[in-house]
Each structure stands twice: as C-alpha cells, then as structure tokens.
Amino acid sequence: MYPLRPLKVYVLDRVQDNPAWVARVERILGGIAERPDEIVTVTEANLPEAVAELKALWPPADVPDGVPPTFLRPIVFTTSHLDDEAPDVDALLERCPEGTLGIARAVLGLIERVRPTHMRESDAERNHVCWPTHDFGTMNGCPHGCHYCGEGKSGCCIVTAVNLEEFMDRVVGPTVEQFPWQKCFRMIGWGADHLTFEPENGAFDLFTRKLAEYPDRYAYFHTASSNVDWIADLPRRDRLIGVWSVTCEGVARLLEGGTGHAADRFEAGRKCQEMGVPIRYKFKPIIPIRGWREDYAQAIEQMLRRSKPESVGFCVAMWMPWEELARRVDPDLLDPDLVAAARDAADELKNVRTGPFPHAVRADIYRHFIREVRRWDSDVPLYVSTESREMWDELAGELGQKPQAYVCACSSVAIPGRRLALSKGCPASTYLPPEARPCPAQPTEE
Fold this sequence. Notes:
It contains 15 helices and 15 strands. The protein is α/β, with parallel strands linked by helices and 446 residues long. α1 (19-31) links the parallel β1 and β2 (39-42). α2 (47-57) crosses α4 (101-107). The chain is globular, with a radius of gyration of 21 Å.
C-alpha cells in the first residue's frame, strides 16, 4: 500500500469486537511508512471531541520534505453499518461541533454502501450520457489530493470500514442478485481510491472472490494509482478489470500531488495486461493547463506504446461552475484562451452540468485527443464520458461508436473483450430517454 504517514489514527471501539477486523487494522498499519505513537479509540462518549480534533488537524502545519501533504491525512477505522434500517444517532450527532456531522457519520460507519449511479431519469435531467450502474464503497477519502476533487483537496481524513467479509456477503451478493442485468461492478468508494490501501486491506481479493460465485460477473478497480504489483497474487484476478483515470505529466505534477508521475499509470496498465487483466483508460478530467496540447499528446503516445487498452475515454473538467473550478485550480495554470471562454460563458453555464467550458471548447479538445489517439491506434474504441447528447451527436462519427450502445471503461455491461452484455434490463445507454426502454432500477427478466 501507499507509504502513508497519518498524523493520527482513530479506531471505533466496536472494531475491537472481531479478531478479523483487528487483524485488518494491524495489516494496514504495518503497511504504512510511519505508525503514530498514539491510536485513539473512539466511543460514543468521546465522539464529539474526536471529530473536532479530526477537523482541526487538517491541513497540517508542518509537512516533511518529499512527502505529499495528503499522505499525512488521519486514518479512521470503522465498521460499515449493514442493516437496512439506519441507527438512531440524532442525539449523538447533536453533541458534535458544527461542521463535523459528515465526519461523525462516517466515523460511526454510516458510509453509503451501494449507490445507484446514472439512472435514466437523473441523466435525462442533467443531459448526461453514461450507463446505469450500482457502485459499492467501503471508504471515504483519499491520499491523492487532486485539486479538482473536493474531497481530495480539502477532505480532513480517510475513513475505511474493516468488516469487509460481512460487506461482501450482505451487500455485494444481494446487489448482484437484485440486478441480474448488471455484469460489471465498481468498488469505488466516495472521494476514495481503494487501491491505495491494497493488498493489506484485502478488498479486491474478497470482491473478486464474491463475484466469481456468479456466472459472468466482473469487478472493476477505478484508480489513479500505480500500486498494482499485488494483483499478480489474486486467485480470482480473472474476474478483475482495471480502469485508470489518466492525465498528462503537467497535471500530475501540479494538481495531483499524491499520484506519482503520469506515466506510472500507463506502466501499471502494462503490468496488469501482462497478468491477463483487461485494462482501460479515461482522460478524466482533462485539465487544459498551459501547453496542454503537447503535454497530453506525449501522454497518449506513452500510453499506446506501452499497452493496448480495451477503450480510451475523454472528459473535460466539468460538474461545477467556473467560480468553483477557479477556487480549486489556480486559473494562472490554465490555457488563458480557455479561461477567457469559461469566464465569458460563466452565467450561461452556471447550472449546466457539462460546464464550465462551453460546448465548442470541449469539442475542440476532444478532437485533439481523438486525432492523437488515432496516430498510434486505429482500432481502440473511443468515447466521451458523462458528456451531453449534443456532444455525442457531433462527435459520434469521429469517435466511431454509437451513443446508444458504446464500449467504455467502467459501464455496468462492458465485459472483457470490447463487448457489451446487453439485456432487457439494460439494453442501451442513457442517451435514450427514460421512456424509451425499461428502467434498470426496476429490472426485467433477461
């Protein structure tokens, strides 16, 4: 796992009730670079003080030379609450200081277990094109510290649940059975990157073993990490698909302080491909820094010289108004012409999910990426990720795929081999409106 140096470690008291959970904590603490002298046991009695301290610890006043600041984030070990009925913790939360309720809920194990993502109704409302899916998470927070990610830039801690065996049986298995149309599942977490805690955490060993109990079901990791050597020892890596969020060297250096070099992810993809694990890349988000055309062109050449991905996707930075992006990313780092375009369109795109860059700007960026990929690979499926219907209408011919049913990196039906496993429950992407096909949230028989 990553050589983390957490300022402090907290363990919810109920973690100590199970030897397997205690062993997982010890493995993780044995894998970090520096174990704090003190480990705080969190109880209902001291929860308010613990969450207040967690908030006050970040950001750190002192950072050792050569250590990414986000490697210092405190780590909290908890157990994910798995019962359908949420516990009544209102009285407990009322005792917590203002601004700490989200932290307190995570510390208590109230981490979202399954999230329905890109359902047809929501994508139609937001004008997004993607694939409906159900994602899993046992972790909040990340050591990467990517500036464009709210949790990455300002999150005060990493909270991870350790009751993973129970999670697989009580959450993953029932979800797979409830949605038979879904073939591929992400263990993605919330503002998290599970790979940064592997193999000590053991999440993907358990996840792949659980999905191997069902015919033709696959597990995704979705990462910005190059920590993959441990995958060679997974007994069921035949059920694993690797997905990377990739970028150019300038963005990795300036805005993704904990991820390492951009090329590290392409090398990780090469390693996984040699292990027999299908690999896929997303340039997501594309940050148009000064000199972005040349920098991303070099990254694309490195990517395709080292490996042969099953797909390559593109998504310009979006999901927020210009003012918010400018708070997260210093505008002086960005292409001044594109900054001017975003500022000029700020009022028009304030409530548009594909903002802050106008359609024409994003289309020009995508065409540059398409041309550069095609210089090195004429066959790899290309797509735009979580983009608008209008963008797909304009670029479908150049991408070479149809927006109704396209091969991408981490959809619910993108099985290995550049194939789609479509069924009555999920016969098309969300390019089609909700009334055009059955809603995957209410699956029909295959």
